[in-house]
């Protein structure tokens, strides 16, 4: 290991693999390492053996769950927004050639004890059971306003300034009820809490438009999902990196991050050998999140997420037997400060045996009894065959890395999609490379 | 009417046994003594004609240097595998055996596996006898041959033999299995298609 690299990447989570792939394409000499013997880190998809090893080391998977190899259980429940930023990266890097995607069959929102489909157009709004007759008219006007908005045409603005007026002002202008605001802000704009209401309306507008345009892509929901689980995503980007010369080493314990007397990054020690590089990128677990890295504090905890992976033997009740869905329980509906999410996939997506449904219920932890906080979500699932509860701290780096060449990514947050993951990729890229990440349109390879 | 079948073929084997050279000979009929690992090729394709009516197109996945740390994705939907060893290195056959065990465990049970002893041009330095390799292949139900990527000996033959052994009875099922190559092969949604239609910023709602 006497070669010197441009960048060492630690951890093969999605964020790190996208960065590794993009840096290799850019011509950087990349060494990518992981302490596990599988790809994906915190964002891996596990087979049954791996899942039980992680949560119940003393127990073998029950035989009636079927074959081990049929399973790819996501550790972090997220869906891909069809018109979102991750889709753009997938297309521009051409890793779509390694992947197959399917739609998520439905997007639901919880209101007053029951779940309903999220309306995404004024046509759907007028049919939705979520609203009474008069509220439907108001919602229809609201959606027409959003769809008619043109920045350059003040007659479409109806007196609203998206960059100055708050979302509260917009809701009030159309007289929308609190329950309607809940599904618009949480199930369409996909905000985790209500902080957005008092802020300028522009980002909310952008997010609602993203939702509706994604919905319009394939029709059933705004989400798509890779066959064989989310763990395919880091694997694809790792292959991209390898194809452009990136070197891979898995199953390597990282003993130390070596720095010079000024604290600047020098290299990484593994198995008694030190590999040198100009820069290091890694997930928080390699930089003190688990108490490693010689006690140096390079990351701080900024909250916790509780996730319950549930095996069901039936689709979720009230979803028209959907093979997959997302259900959002807006915070106000259950007297919380953060929404509860349910993400469900099944054998249609090649992530479990036939007849099994994998639902993950998650939220941001607000109390010292996290499992109770997701009770409202668990109760929507019907009988639960088995359940694995994980409480994960969310870490964020304490410094930008520009001073010491140590660039740390963020933990996977509680949002139900990958937009914040891409934001982190863009942020780290800018800090590492020194310029904005620009996705170049790749030449289309002619297949003969 | 002519039919084209498409199959995913994965290469396995220790580094420096000549996996990429074998593919380069097969696809481009080239050889380079000092070739370094391939950079920038996601996979290569080559078509084999079986008869007037039937062609088989291979989508060939190289290990991209990840041979020691292959992702499960690599085996996914593979219809056939060429496991390569170097006839001048007996250790490389041992390694090939471990890949074959892994394939038998992880890949689709219907996968066609060919064991391939490369560097036949260096047979003066042979360490692996034909008898030994052939016996092992027979026991495991594998195809077996020896090749030289350098001279080209046996290369087209092994790929043609694989093409002949692949099940050509159910084209639609096979295509879905081969999966991810050409347009029309996908069962799910096509992201590239959408990207083409959204060249402009998504202003449809504005």
In short:
The complex is a heterodimer of chains A (448) and B (206). With 448 residues, chain A is an alpha/beta fold.
Question: Can you characterise this structure?
Answer:
The complex is a heterodimer of chains A (448) and B (206). By secondary structure, chain A is an alpha/beta fold. Chain A folds into 3 domains: 154 residues, FAD/NAD(P)-binding domain; 141 residues, Guanine Nucleotide Dissociation Inhibitor, domain 2 (2-Layer Sandwich); 102 residues, Guanine Nucleotide Dissociation Inhibitor, domain 1 (Orthogonal Bundle). Helix content of chain A is 27%, strand content 23%. Chain A is built from 12 helices and 19 strands. In chain A, strands 1, 2, 10, 11, 12, 13 and 19 form a 7-stranded mixed beta sheet that branches. Chain A has a 7-stranded mixed beta sheet with strand order 8-7-15-16-17-14-18. In chain A, helix 1 links the parallel strand 1 and strand 2. In chain A, helix 1 runs parallel beside helix 9. The longest helix of chain A is centred in the middle third of the chain and has 17 residues. Chain A is globular, with a radius of gyration of 23 Å. In chain A, 51% of the residues are buried. The C terminus of chain A is likely disordered. Chain B is α/β, with parallel strands linked by helices and 206 residues long. Chain B has a single domain, classed as Rossmann fold, CATH 3.40.50. Chain B is 33% helix and 21% strand. Chain B contains 7 helices and 6 strands. Chain B has a 6-stranded mixed beta sheet with strand order 2-3-1-4-5-6, sandwiched between helices. In chain B, helix 4 links the parallel strand 5 and strand 6. The termini of chain B are far apart. The relative contact order of chain B is 0.19. Chains A and B meet through helix 3, strand 6, helix 8, helix 9 and strand 10 of A and helix 2 and helix 7 of B.
